[in-house]
Amino acid sequence: MTLDELRTQVSDVLGETPGDDESLIDAGLxxxxxxxxxxxxxxxxxxxxxxxxxxxxxxxxWARLLA
Length: 67
Fold this sequence. Notes:
This protein is an all-alpha fold. Helices cover 58% and strands 0% of the residues. The chain has one domain: Non-ribosomal Peptide Synthetase Peptidyl Carrier Protein, Chain A, CATH 1.10.1200. The longest helix has 13 residues.
């Protein structure tokens, strides 16, 4: 998954586009939305856990995990 694809998906969920290194939690991402994104990515074959994503809650961090 590219950073641009990730940015689009997260922006759709948040209703705004956060910066690549901005905390997505500070931008309003809650655990329910995080879990829904995670399930989509897992269905696409990405092996990430809630803890993986919560540990690096930025677009840049997630892009590395989902690469």
